[in-house]
Amino acid sequence: MFRVKDDTIWGQIRILFLASALLFLANIYFGFYNALSWVYDLLYRGRAPWDMDGPRPELVEMVKNGQLKPCRAIDLGCGTGEDVIYLAQRGFEAVGVDLSSRAIAQARDKAREAGVSPTFIAGDVTRLLQVEGPFDLALDYVCLGCVIGTPARERYAQTLSRLTRPGAIYILLNLATDPDRRFNLVPNALQPGEVDNLFGEDFVLNITTMSTKLGL
Ligand SMILES: C[S@@+](CC[C@H](N)C(=O)[O-])C[C@H]1O[C@@H](n2cnc3c(N)ncnc32)[C@H](O)[C@@H]1O
């Protein structure tokens, strides 16, 4: 599902090394979250490795087969907004949030071109005080896995709990490690059991494992 231009181990090490070095330097200058948004902004200057030209096929499938019906939906870490735009085109009242203001600007441009007007917000999903719920559907395509550290992930879970109504659907796509690879450079991926611990009693989790490869 995800495409990477250089799928070799050296290509991956190079991306990881570059991203870590940039994060380290930006952290010194701007503080952690500003640094992180700066790094994502930089990645969105070109084509980010995970960026797709359309919505996630799994989401399209769920809308087509009626599992997801028009409702209030929020996409956490929406990137350049393909899924939010797709939902808006199908009658959902969709909101997309991303740390990268560059990604959000691109998402707004894409939405304008597509003739829809979902809401896009540049913000940190671990805080999001500027967003009002309740939502019936929350999507997360590889954002929680990018949130660094347990306290921030716990804040994310609290935010999600605040923003969703009882019975809401939450779709989480995690970074997958690939058992066929000799090296798996996914230092930040959610660990087995971590999702249950994070969401605790606030959520009834129905976990389906989807196979996906980020190439990292
Ligand atoms: C792997 S990308 C996935 C983007 C998009 N969901 C997609 O499928 O194309 C992760 C996204 O999460 C965003 N992100 C990471 N940490 C975030 C945070 N704390 N708050 C909001 N967005 C965040 C990044 O800017 C990036 O766009």
Describe the structure.
By secondary structure, this protein is of the alpha/beta class. The chain has a domain at 55-199: 3-Layer(aba) Sandwich (Rossmann fold), CATH 3.40.50.150. The chain is built from seven helices and five strands; from the N terminus they run H-H-H-E-H-E-H-E-E-H-E-H. It has helices spanning 9-30, 32-43, 57-64, 82-89, 101-114, 150-163, 194-199, and strands at 72-76, 93-98, 119-122, 135-141, 164-173. It has a five-stranded parallel β-sheet with strand order 3-2-1-4-5. Helix 5 links the parallel strand 2 (93-98) and strand 3 (119-122). It binds S-adenosylmethionine (SAM). S-adenosylmethionine (SAM) binds next to strand 2.
- Mind telling me the C-alpha Rg? 17 Å
Going by helix content, strand content and strand pairing, the class is: alpha/beta
Query: What is the residue-averaged pLDDT?
Result: 82
Count up the helices: 7
User: What would the principal axes of the Cα set say about the shape?
Assistant: globular
Element order: H for helix, E for strand: HHHEHEHEEHEH
Bound small-molecule species: S-adenosylmethionine
CATH superfamily of the domain at 55-199: Vaccinia Virus protein VP39
Distance between the termini: 13 Å
Supply the CATH class of the domain at 55-199: Alpha Beta
Measured by DSSP, the beta-strand proportion falls in 5-15%
What low-confidence regions span 5 or more consecutive residues with pLDDT below 50? 1-6, 211-216
Helical content band:
25-40%
Spatially, the strands of the biggest sheet line up as 3-2-1-4-5
Number of strands: 5
Multimeric organization: single chain
Main β sheet profile: 5 strands, parallel
CATH architecture of the domain at 55-199: 3-Layer(aba) Sandwich
CATH topology of the domain at 55-199: Rossmann fold
